[in-house]
Amino acid sequence: MGSKKAKLVFVCRECGHSSVKWLGKCPQCNAWNSYAEEIDPEAIRPSRRSMLNTPSKPEALREIKANAANRLKTGIGELDRVLGGGLVAGSAVLFAGAPGIGKSTLTLQAANKVALLGNPVLYITGEESAEQIKLRATRLKCDAAELFVVAETNLDAIRNHLANIKPALAIVDSVQTLYDQELPSAPGSVGQVRECAAAIIMQAKASGTPVFLVGHVTKDGNVAGPRTLEHMVDTVLSFEGEKYQSYRLLRASKNRFGGTGELGVFEMRGDGLAEVENASRIFLDEYDHARPGCTVVPAAEGTRVLLVEVQALVTRSPMANPRRRFTGLDQNRAHMLLAVLERRAGLRLAEFEVYLNIVGGVQVEEPAADLAACFAVASSAREIKLPPSTVFIGEVGLSGEVRNVATLQQRLDESSKLGFTQAVIPRQRGNQLRTPRDMKLIQLADLREGLEKFFLVE
Ligand code: TYD
Ligand code: MG
Q: Which end of the chain is less enclosed by CB atoms within 10 A, N or C?
């Protein structure tokens, strides 16, 4: 291993000067603090170096053929939609999620669907044995003839398999298990993960094979290992949900080939993940308007509207610094809303603990949920329940004004479709809004005025 140390060099990011030790100042271009550790290209095996040196040739942009319609559909509608209509040839997708959320399950199901169309698919597993994958596949009824599995973590072996099989789709589960014997660092280290991912992404680009790189996320939601991974791939999908509940949400947090607002909804069943098409009311199962502190907001998620329940509990606190806990909402925003309620709407909260929660493990970070959160808090604080079948939509500003939100029409239509008959919304100027049939609209300009209407402040 000793000689392998020489393969790392320090390279000046300004002028490219290389040195075996780190230098504070570059002797060539005099730049300060410009050295970064890199792999010495001289030390890369010739086989690999040749790949780096494939001659490239500039082409006239108008002559270049690119067909956006030429995407590989995984056959799982919700996944294809989040991807922006399927997989683009040669693209790398980081599929991130907490352990146990269902990453292996969904990627195996996608692999099987693609393989059923007669395309070879290679599933590379670094965490489980091929037998374990087989057991899962049996449960998922995945038995396409063209689906190949290999338990491998060695980068070179994986690259050979990819070159030999030339799959239509490859899955690497997970990227954190890969290792390159050419590198001195230990498997699982940041350098290993980054270099291995880079090599696989490069091969994907060169061969046109799209790859899914499965990645674990840490407790705080970041992809474990190098952050740079997110910059290297074309698309980052995150798979979320409460481990003990059956719904799973798929979002694209980055997408070079499509939008990032789309939401895919799945349900974990005994035989794998099933698509949920009519997702708008899945989180309202237990909603009961007869309880104080509960409101509903139609949240916009990409092109779809999801009705979610906001719950608040306000209770007197013996402590000088009463506790505040927010789940599913943006923390800073929630603190701001409490301050606005206190100062602009006259709701006394200083001696009270406040808990705010979005039911079902959903994250709603958009300001359109402000009004629902404020009404939930006020309703719990005063122990006064809100009228039945009512949704609350609106952003609340620092002076207590209720501001308009995007896609209001769509939110109203969806709420009406699900049987809601009243909507509290920001005041509308002009009359572009089409009131859904059987729905009553209550327009607010100001939070305090709204709370008074519902007897929530004196
Ligand atoms: P898995 O895909 O292994 O998660 P990850 O790869 O993200 O770590 O799935 C994890 C959980 O899903 C596991 O606890 C069992 C459950 N599960 C089902 O409920 N139904 C199924 O059909 C399968 C395959 C898994
Ligand atoms: Mg797994």
A: N
Residue ranges covered by each domain of the chain = 1-47, 71-277, 282-453
Name the residue at shortest CA distance from atom 1 of ligand 1: 102
| Residue 394 CB less than 6 A away from ligand 1 | no
Q: Tell me the CATH class for 71-277.
A: alpha beta
Ligand 2 centroid to 125 CA: how many Å? 9
For residue 98, the CA-to-ligand 2 centroid distance in Å is: 9
CATH, domain range 282-453: 3.30.230.10
CA-based nearest residue to 357, from 321, 332, 382, 325: 325
Local structure of 213: helix, strand or coil = strand
Reading the chain (458 residues) residue by residue, the pLDDT tens digits are 434 444 677 877 777 788 888 888 888 888 888 887 776 656 655 555 555 556 678 888 888 777 666 889 999 999 999 999 999 999 999 999 988 899 999 999 999 999 999 999 999 999 999 999 999 999 999 999 999 999 999 999 999 999 999 999 999 998 999 999 888 888 777 888 889 999 999 999 999 999 999 998 876 666 666 667 888 999 999 998 877 778 898 989 899 988 887 888 899 999 999 998 777 777 777 777 778 999 999 998 877 888 999 999 999 999 989 999 999 999 999 999 999 999 999 999 999 999 999 987 788 889 999 999 999 999 999 999 999 999 999 999 999 999 999 999 999 999 998 889 999 999 998 778 899 988 999 999 999 999 999 888 87
* Equal fold, 71-277 vs 282-453: no
Strand 121-125 to strand 147-151: parallel, antiparallel, or no bridges (unpaired)? Answer: parallel
Maximum Cα interatomic distance, the chain, rounded to a whole number of Å: 79
What's the pTM?
Answer: 0.76
Radius of gyration from C-alpha coordinates of the chain: 27
**Which residues make Cβ contacts (< 8 Å) with residue 35, sequence separation at least 6?**
10, 11, 12, 13, 19, 22, 23, 26
Whether 102 lines ligand 1, by a CB cut-off of 6 Å, is yes
Ligand 1: centre distance to CA 136 (Å): 8
Question: 134 CB less than 6 Å from ligand 1?
Answer: no
